[in-house]
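We both want to read discrete structure tokens more fluently, so let's practise on a single case. Once you have written the record down, we can walk along the chain together.
***
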Amino acid sequence: MKKNIYKTALTFGLGLGILFFVSCGGNSGNSLPKNEYVGNVPSIVAEYNDDKAKLQAEEDKEAKNVNSMSKDELLKKMKEFAEKEKTIEEKMETALEAEKTALKGKELPVVNENPAVEVAGMKVHDINDKYVVFKGSISVKEELANTSIKCIMQDKDGNTIEEIEASINAPYEYGKNGASVGSYEITARIKIDKPESAKLAKMVFVSNQQ
């Protein structure tokens, strides 16, 4: 029975360690500057990743001692790690909620390089986990083949931070997969998961073929 408990705990420990590694991608640090458009979100996420990495290291260290622990010691350690993980998650959620209030309605500059559309007014609508959600308006000048459009996040020098597909909220039309000529709402979900996100300065809409 004791052997099975140890085996379960070791599996739990290693699995948790792998989960932490995948989710945090290593130690990112937490000293990123505040960004004009996404505020402290990059720093909050970096600190979250840092906390998870430290907890991973601590959990991996304890996993090596699992065979020398009693059942009660083992259960106590498992409870401690679960509570620490919960604290880390709640810390990030609370910080992001505060940023959501501060950033709501903040407008990110837009550059239109796709002649088929014109996008304007991309403002912070929500912060969901590690994503900052921007919503704005799009004028479709030529019928599009789909209801998404390529968007490149750049810093002030034009360096690419991330490429995404922004969603055009066009109504479904029978026999068509894309958006017809007209005006619609557009949504861009930007994942803030890298230090470069702290340098975000503009959103460039380009042709899907670029």
